[in-house]
Amino acid sequence: MLSGKAAVLTASTRGIGLAAARRLARHGARVLVSSRRQDHVDEAVSGLRAEGLEAWGIPCHVGRGPDREALVAEAVRLFGGVDILVSNAGVNPHAGGILDCPESAWDKLWEVNVKAAALLVGLVAPHMEKRGGGSIVLVSSVAGYRPSFPIGAYGVSKTALLGLTKALAGELAPLRIRVNCLAPGFIKTNFSSVLWEEDGLRRELEKGVAMGRLGEAEECAGVVAFLCSPDAAYITGETVGVNGGIDCRL
Ligand code: NAP
Asked: How many domains is the chain built from?
């Protein structure tokens, strides 16, 4: 369903990003994966290629302008353009109360979680326009709906992505570029390991999930692929939650 499409993904050498890259490639896309570390990029690319998938990679710290430009330039060099962008990079530099969040942490949250996503969209949009359209998925979080202690500041940065999705969807619709958003709940990855490695805390979290378990990165990947596919041709500006029913507990 994505045969021949050119996909660029940030933060895609592990976790949700890597699972999304694998799923897009299994549907026929050529994928350019990226993250900060070259060794992570190499490992992800060789893993995907070992599965017979069409994958390339380049280091990209999304907070750095030259890295973002190099990422998009590499996609254009390899594929001749860009059809799909998955903006997945996110950091959480502060655990604690909002009022205790230092300015440096606010800066990082804004730069990596929000600003980089908007600027990357700005870099890929002209290439998508040349191809007659494209699809963008921003990765927010269930925390974006209800930011709260001890990750309130991170949650607020993810709320901004819900708004960014709406704003970009409106501005880019005339170019036939769709912009949607994924809001994962508790997904078992490195990023969230502090929440699930310790049995007691994990069980507490699971009590708040109607399905009674944490999610897997692969369970986010299908939503990303769907949003990028022709089946979602009339969907833009939407956020899809993947959280096992986090607000549905009796
Ligand atoms: P993960 O498994 O820990 O993977 C993080 C990936 O991001 C790695 O490939 C890492 O590689 C890369 N990365 C980190 N900082 C980066 C940066 N500044 N620039 C580019 N790449 C960077 O994390 P994950 O759980 O899949 O998280 C992915 C996204 O999902 C994040 O936006 C997160 O906020 C969101 N999310 C996660 C959960 C959850 O429960 N896991 C829930 C809601 C939302 P390098 O170290 O090589 O850079």
From this structure: 1
